[in-house]
């Protein structure tokens, strides 16, 4: 488990991470989602002892990363896949990691197989790797010590859809075996595909957190009336039941579950053409709303 408690990091007068608290639970894949510059990398760098917090703390299975004698055996870290030594082959990079952690050389081939890099690819210099291959190699470096916890900054960056599915299955298996995974992304879709729990950060502050299912449910219901002129009537009925609605794409998005929206429409005598959970579209809308005030695009608007 990773526990982040009231973490703050200031650079001069600028607060990059502002009183952030969350946990990444054992057996779960936790997605850390936020627009560029939200504070994800800073938080993760603090986790693994590369940046000192101004205040607050992070513990990984109850301890400070800096106290770990051989941290690679406890926490697998990928912070920047493009920061690998370009002149070395993938195999050499893993061999150095294995040696540093005091692991048998046989781990190199095992780990290469685990991340789907072929013998041929492992023999190429990293400067000739695609971004996706670098990500696989970075994940291999994180996994080689067989840790219980993974901290991965933008690990899906550069992966094609099949690569993202592969990563989902790998991380799912890791979590199912009792591991803890925290991964960051600025892309909602990646997190939606891969994570069980989601922590959303904007301008250094946590703006939402919960299980993916909860956040999807919180994204509400999409409803369209059979007769478009009845939409206002339905909106009024929903408002009377204290349900907030937003016009969307020829219909309404209501902050309530489909059952309540359906019952309200029935009571108001409004026939419906469509009634469903807003699902991914709703989560995307929520992400844009939550981060609109904090993202550059929002500031420009
Ligand atoms: N060493 C530093 N000195 C000054 N400001 C910094 C430093 N490191 C980070 N920042 C600032 O802190 C903020 C958060 O940066 P961070 O890299 O944590 O964001 P991020 O969420 O990882 O973004 P991205 O998705 O773009 O990587 C940014 O405004 C960044 O410019």
TrEMBL record:
The identity of this protein, by name, is ABC transporter
**Which family does the record assign?**
Belongs to the ABC transporter superfamily.
ABC transporter domain spans which residues?
Answer: 2-228
What's the source species for this entry? Nocardioides flavus (ex Wang et al. 2016)
Q: Name one Pfam family in it.
A: ABC_tran
- Is Transport a UniProt keyword of this protein? yes
Query: What are the entry keywords?
Result: ATP-binding, Nucleotide-binding, Transport
Looking up PANTHER family in the UniProt record yields: ABC TRANSPORTER, ATP-BINDING PROTEIN
Record PROSITE patterns:
ABC_TRANSPORTER_1 (PS00211), ABC_TRANSPORTER_2 (PS50893)
């Amino acid at each position: 488990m990773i526990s982040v408690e009231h973490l703050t990091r200031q650079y001069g007068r600028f607060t990059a991470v502002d009183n952030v608290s969350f946990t990444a639970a054992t057996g779960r894949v936790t997605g850390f989602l936020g627009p560029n510059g939200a504070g994800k990398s800073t938080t993760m760098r603090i986790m693994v002892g590369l940046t000192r917090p101004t205040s607050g703390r992070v513990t990984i299975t109850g301890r400070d990363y800096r106290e770990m004698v051989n941290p690679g055996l406890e926490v697998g870290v990928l912070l920047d896949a493009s920061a690998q030594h370009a002149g070395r082959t993938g195999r050499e990079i893993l061999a150095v990691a294995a040696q540093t952690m005091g692991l048998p050389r046989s781990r190199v081939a095992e780990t290469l197989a685990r991340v789907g890099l072929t013998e041929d690819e492992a023999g190429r210099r990293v400067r000739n790797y695609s971004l996706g291959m670098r990500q696989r190699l970075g994940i291999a470096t994180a996994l080689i010590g067989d840790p219980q916890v993974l901290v991965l900054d933008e690990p899906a960056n550069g992966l094609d859809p099949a690569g993202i599915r592969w990563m989902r299955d790998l991380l799912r298996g890791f979590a199912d075996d009792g591991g803890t995974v925290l991964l960051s992304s600025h892309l909602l879709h990646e997190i939606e595909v891969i994570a069980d729990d989601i922590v959303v950060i904007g301008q250094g502050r946590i703006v939402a957190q919960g299980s993916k299912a909860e956040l999807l449910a919180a994204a509400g219901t999409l409803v369209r009336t059979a007769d478009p002129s009845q939409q206002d009537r339905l909106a009024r009925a929903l408002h009377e039941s204290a349900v907030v609605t937003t016009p969307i794409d020829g219909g309404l998005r209501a902050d309530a579950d489909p059952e309540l929206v359906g019952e309200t429409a029935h009571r108001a005598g409004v026939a419906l053409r469509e009634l469903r959970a807003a699902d991914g579209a709703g989560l995307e809308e929520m992400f844009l709303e939550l981060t609109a005030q904090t993202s550059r695009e929002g500031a420009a608007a």
